[in-house]
Design brief:
By secondary structure, this protein is mainly beta. 9% of the residues lie in helices and 32% in strands.
Length: 485
């Protein structure tokens, strides 16, 4: 071979090119502006993103970016079926082996890859095991055993709360006053409503018959400021603007007695067997036994510095909770004339008060426009428990009789009805329809329905609670409400 030709070949293999016209023996000079390529194309993989291009699952030890992390949502009734269908497809197509829907989330988009290897350039075909338990030659089902267990797994039924009232009644002259209590529902399924100077009764059992008028205070130039049914449903107490409390026998349709003692309107009433408590704008709370003359059994509870607008007796009939326009919540016992507990955390008037029928000593209270919060108290220890900001004025509170839930009605500025789960304080439902503040609330005797009243002069009936008792309710022997002592 020619030695000169051999030198040129060696220079080409070493990446050196001899310029045209240059002597062979001279130093090789290459142009710096020209790129040199070989005869083989080797692609550059330096900028490849394998976990995106090839759907490679990231390592579990690596921390994901906050922007990629998704907040798991609680499955609703709309996507529950789609979640089960997606799990079924994962079982049949990807071998996910999902047997239960409890731990699955609708937004769970994990990429399924074989656990034994992460090699993307694996060309071996995985052999199917002969004794595969997920398939049987004698099975008549088109899906595997895992998918059959998935379809048979118990699914939690989601309770649907209708956002439309099942009945709406006109209530002309229903006052738009935060400090009044003009609606109550008796144990005999009769609704009493104070409209202007009259009290009307409406039977939910015979709703087609219509309403009846119980009394008219226009003769005395007075008006109704509060109504409250006795526990047995035979008597109804009517508080007036002049400070009187009238006791009416509904069956006989006559007035039994008139209780005096207050010097201003009576906006709050609460029964404890035959004992009636009344709260007034004169800042007093009077307790009287309707079976005896008022002078003998009258007890005067002093403590509030402004109008008393909320009164509720505890389920064990031992303690009375009172709320006032002085932003204070008091708890009284049967013997003392001064409050045994005082709570001052609210920043506005406390009208909404409700004792829990499921947990002994648990009290809930709601504040007005400047407060907007629902607070929970342990009256056994006198300690605050939880609180939630509702975003609007809290007008009423009521617990469910069968489940650990409560409903709240609101005024400024959203005029809504909210259903809460306790103790998680998760909002179950939000009901709207009233155009004014939802100032009045009462629960049906069966504990399933509620009625709300507002300044828009309407009464709306809603199905918000379930009749079935919660299976998670405590069966402890210390529960005073589940056993007879």
């Amino acid at each position: 071979m020619d030695p000169e030709y051999e030198k040129r070949l060696l220079r080409q293999q070493n990446g050196q090119v001899t310029p045209i016209g240059s002597p062979v023996g001279g130093s090789p000079v290459s142009s710096p502006s020209k790129d040199k390529y070989g005869d083989r194309f080797i692609p550059s993989r330096a900028g490849a993103v394998w976990h995106i291009n090839f759907n490679m699952a990231p390592d579990a030890n690596k921390v994901q970016s906050p922007s990629i992390t998704r907040k798991a949502k609680e499955p609703s009734d709309n996507n529950k079926d789609s979640l089960a269908y997606n799990c079924l497809l994962k079982n049949e197509l990807l071998g996910a082996s999902i047997e239960d829907l409890k731990d699955q989330q609708p937004d769970d988009r994990r990429i399924l890859v074989p656990k034994e290897s992460k090699n993307m350039f694996q060309y071996r075909v995985k052999k199917r095991a002969v004794d595969n338990s997920d398939s049987s030659p004698y099975s008549l089902s088109p899906v595997g055993n895992k998918s059959q267990k998935l379809l048979r797994s118990p699914r939690k039924t989601i309770r649907k709360i209708s956002k439309i009232p099942f009945k709406v009644l006109d209530a002309p002259e229903l006052q738009d006053d935060f400090y009044l209590n003009l609606v109550d529902w008796s144990s005999q399924n009769v609704l009493s409503v104070g409209l202007g100077t009259c009290v009307y009764l409406w039977s939910a059992c015979t709703s087609q018959v219509g309403v009846t008028r119980l009394c008219d205070l226009s003769v005395d130039v007075d008006s109704v400021t509060s109504v409250s049914w006795a526990e047995r449903g035979n008597f109804v107490a009517v508080g007036t603007h002049k400070g009187y409390v009238q006791i009416w026998d509904v069956a006989a349709n006559k007035k039994v007695s008139t209780l005096e003692g207050h010097s201003a309107r009576v906006g709050a009433l609460a029964w404890n067997a035959d004992m009636l408590s009344s709260g007034s704008r004169d800042r007093l709370i009077l307790q009287r036994d309707i079976r005896t003359p008022p002078v003998i059994t009258e007890r005067r509870l002093t403590g509030h510095r402004q109008e008393v607008c909320g009164l509720k007796w505890s389920p064990d009939h031992q303690h009375l909770a009172s709320g006032g326009n002085d932003n204070k919540l008091f708890v009284w016992n049967m013997n003392s004339t001064t409050p045994v507990q005082t709570y001052t955390d609210h920043l506005a008037a406390v009208k909404a008060i409700a004792w829990s029928p499921h947990q002994h000593g648990l009290l809930a209270s709601g504040g007005g426009t400047a407060d907007r919060s629902i607070r929970f108290w342990n009256t056994l220890t006198g300690q605050p428990l939880q609180s939630v900001d509702t975003g609007s004025q809290v007008c009423n509170l009521a617990w469910s009789k069968h489940a650990n839930e409560l409903v709240s009605t609101h005024g400024y500025s959203q005029n809504q009805i909210l259903v809460w789960k306790y103790p998680s304080l998760v909002q179950i439902a939000k009901l709207t329809g009233h155009s004014y503040r939802v100032l009045y609330l009462a629960v049906s005797p069966d504990g399933e329905a509620i009625v709300t009243g507002a300044g828009d002069e309407t009464l709306r009936f809603w199905n918000v609670f379930s009749k079935t008792r919660s299976t998670k309710e405590s069966k402890s022997v210390l529960n005073l409400f589940t056993r007879i002592r």
